[in-house]
Amino acid sequence: MIHLKSTQSDDFAPAGIKVAIQIRVSYDAPGRLESEMKKVVAERLGEMVEELGSWVEYYRVQLDEEVLVVAFDLCSSSMIMEQLLLGGDVSCLTDLLTAIKRHLAAEQEHLLFDPYKFTGDGWILLFPANTDGFALMAFLERLCRFYSDEYRRLIKPNLQNVLKIVGLSFGIDRGWVSRMKMYGQTEYIGRPIIVACRLQGAVKDKGGSPAYKALVTYHAYRKHFTHLAASRAVRVKRILRNINAETPFGCKQIALLSR
Q1: Which superfamily does CATH assign the domain made up of 65-255 to?
Q2: Residue ranges with strand state E in the chain
Q3: Strand partners for 219
Q4: What percentage of residues in the chain have a pLDDT greater than 90?
Q5: Where residue 30 falls among pLDDT bands split at 50, 70, 90?
Q6: What does the alpha-carbon distance between residue 95 and residue 83 come to, in Å, rounded to a whole number?
């Protein structure tokens, strides 16, 4: 039996004041509990604590809605830009980004989502929390295949040197966000947006190609990706800047497109 006990006081923090929540953990086990079982308990406990972090709101703000956040960008985008600048023409990269934008617009006819923000070499997409996992996975696979085809058509012929890593990398989380207006534009703030972006940037941290892979929080994985074969989703850990006190953050790495 696992016991979780919060040591937070009953006082609610005023707006803008960070609330620290401490959790004490213990579990009852037979004297001869095998080491492997202890390992399983520890891993599951880690998932529970990290998932709790996704739901605990550290600031007193009005939360508008729960969303699924998908952040993605182009692998080796800086190297692509450098080679194109040396050649004196970056129009093919503009054409590629425009093609991705049109592809996302076409996908909105089949799946509800908001192409919330262009980040220079990728996008942050916001999906409803009830998005079907099968439809989401099909969307991600189509996006990967589309990029692979467009890269070969638009970018590859214009590069002087062949790039070793080509593709898209993704970070995915879900949780509550707050909506606000800034300079007349609708903006969103919330932990899942930050975590998704941090995960996307951490796909490559452990070596190997990050192309067509996604790092997904346990919470998002359990809601949307449990239908995947175990071989496509493996447990990994990453250090995310200013997340989880910069201690190892457990998540799932999903292969979106077989090479």
Answers
A1: Nucleotide cyclase, GGDEF domain (3.30.70.1230)
A2: 2-6, 23-27, 65-74, 114-118, 122-128, 168-182, 185-189, 213-216, 233-238, 249-255
A3: none
A4: 66
A5: low
A6: 16
In the chain, DSSP finds a helix count (H) and a strand count (E) of 6, 10
Tokens matching residue 221: 């994985």
Is 57's pLDDT higher than 80?
no
> With contact defined as beta carbons under 8 Å apart, do 41 and 26 qualify?
no
- Checking if the pLDDT of 199 tops 60, the result is yes
Interval 120-147 mean pLDDT: 97
Residue 52 phi/psi, 5-degree rounding, is -60, -40
Which residues, including other chains, have CB under 8 Å from residue 56's CB and lie 6 or more apart? Answer: 19, 21
Q: Which of 132, 221, 131 is nearest to 172 (CA)?
A: 221
Each residue of 150-196: pLDDT tens digit? 999 999 999 999 999 999 999 999 999 998 889 888 899 999 999 99
Q: Are 174 and 70 in contact (CB under 8 A)?
A: no
Tell me, rounded to whole angstroms, the distance of Cα 67 from its chain centroid. 12
The whole-angstrom separation of Cα 12 and Cα 14 is 7
Q: Domain residue spans in the chain?
A: 2-55, 65-255
Tokens of 147: 């990029």
pLDDT higher than threshold 50 for residue 17: no
Cross-strand pairs, 74: 168
SS3 109: coil
258 touches 102 (CB < 8 A): no
